[in-house]
Design a protein that fits this description.
With 403 residues, the chain is mainly alpha-helical. The chain is built from 15 helices and no strands.
Length: 403
């Protein structure tokens, strides 16, 4: 007999994480230029379909079947073979199927995060190949190594909800993508709809409660701590970013406030269930400062990461993982960090996030070069000038004259 409360909670958490993918589409769609709204949104929404197919056929098995202490699992549970619909999850409180669905929502949004970096520069065919191969050879191995009982888990690396697995890998893959495809011809096109960005941010923030609190995979005190830590870090980061940008630009920017919130959400992700509230405050402040200056550095170096995926998610994931190594407290979830004298755990987190970021960057760059032999990765000059909504998808977001 399953626990009704725990089962209901995991269904709710899974639904919240699913909502983050449309939220991301609205966030990116609002930031994009008006000729590229649908192009960036379809790259996000298509992951809902393709990743689901990939996950139930081979993904779940490769991540969570066999391969103890290794880099990748096996195919024993391909097509969910050998997992009855009423099979209990390891804690015995709910069916394994809801855990499968919960982890699938993480797999859906992670590669979609990358798309904001190369908005209006990548062909849809190349992106579909990228979507499949990147998951198979980047996302799945890190899920297995950290959450599936693999190599990094045995080494003692911890990632509560995806600082390494999701944000560091996606953020540094985004940077590699930007360097490979080069800059946009029009780097200064303004956001087409800041209200749409606000809607997307609200959905992401709302969904992130399921992303972080649900990662406890149970209903207990750590669940509520991670829930509150999520909101606290996002709030402190949003206000920090707002005031830092205000002091430099002389005007309070709404997009800056929204971007700061997302940076705080990404940064608290790996640490949400391991640090006290006061640490979440400091993590939020650090996210607001560090991610803002990462975006400033990106602009100074001329990297055309259009929607700041590297600065917000990549740097946020790295920063949050490092600060987990600093602020983790044994009285909360059994893991001590640098603040309690555990230098070993701190350096394990540091090396793990650095290694994952480097691997994601190098693999993504090489993969795009190989995909280019199959089909062009970068859109033609004429398609970019026309906008990929019309040139590739044959659609427009708004009627003529609406914008």
């Amino acid at each position: 007999m399953f626990d009704t409360g725990s089962t209901t909670f995991m269904i709710l958490a899974t639904s919240l994480v699913m909502l983050m993918t449309p939220g991301l589409a609205f966030f990116y769609g609002g930031l994009a230029g008006k000729r590229n709204i649908l192009g960036i949104m379809i790259q996000t929404f298509v992951s809902l379909g393709i990743t689901t197919i990939l996950w139930v056929t081979v993904g779940y098995s490769l991540c969570f079947s066999g391969g103890e202490g290794g880099i990748i699992g096996n195919l024993d549970h391909a097509f969910l073979n050998g997992i009855p619909f009423d099979n209990a999850f390891s804690n015995g409180k709910y069916p394994e199927y809801i855990f499968i669905a919960y982890q699938m929502m993480f797999a859906i949004i992670t590669p979609a995060l990358i798309t904001g970096a190369f908005v209006n520069r990548v062909t849809f065919k190349a992106y579909l190949i990228f979507l499949v191969v990147w998951q198979l050879l980047v996302y799945y191995p890190f899920v297995h190594m950290i959450w599936g009982g693999g190599l990094l888990a045995e080494w003692g690396v911890i990632d509560f909800a995806g600082g390494i697995v999701v944000h560091a890998t996606a953020g540094f893959a985004a940077l590699a993508s930007v360097i490979y495809v080069g800059s946009r011809r029009d780097k200064f096109s303004p956001p087409n709809s800041i209200p749409l960005v606000a809607i997307g941010t609200g959905l992401l923030w709302f969904g992130w409660y399921g992303f972080n609190a649900g990662s406890e995979l149970d209903v207990d005190a750590i669940t509520t701590l991670s829930f509150l830590n999520t909101d606290v870090a996002a709030s402190f980061a949003a206000i920090t970013w707002l005031f830092v940008e205000w002091s430099r630009a002389r005007k309070p920017k709404f997009v800056g406030l929204l971007t700061g919130a997302v940076a705080g959400l990404a940064t608290i992700t790996p640490a949400a269930g391991f640090v006290p509230i006061w640490a979440a405050m400091l993590i939020g402040i650090a996210a607001g400062f560090v991610c803002y200056w990462a975006v400033h550095l990106k602009n100074k170096l001329g990297w055309d990461d259009a929607l700041d995926v590297w600065g917000v998610h990549g740097i946020g994931g790295v920063l949050g993982t490092i600060l987990l190594g600093v602020f983790a407290m044994s009285s909360i979830n059994g893991q001590s960090g640098l603040i309690e004298g555990n230098t070993s755990f701190f350096f394990k987190e540091l090396l793990a996030v650095a290694g994952s970021a480097a691997y994601a960057f190098i693999f993504t760059y090489v993969m795009l070069a190989l995909i280019n032999f199959i089909t062009p990765v970068k859109v033609s000059e004429s398609d970019e000038n026309e906008g990929i909504d019309a040139s590739i998808h044959g659609e427009k977001a708004y009627d003529e004259g609406a914008l």
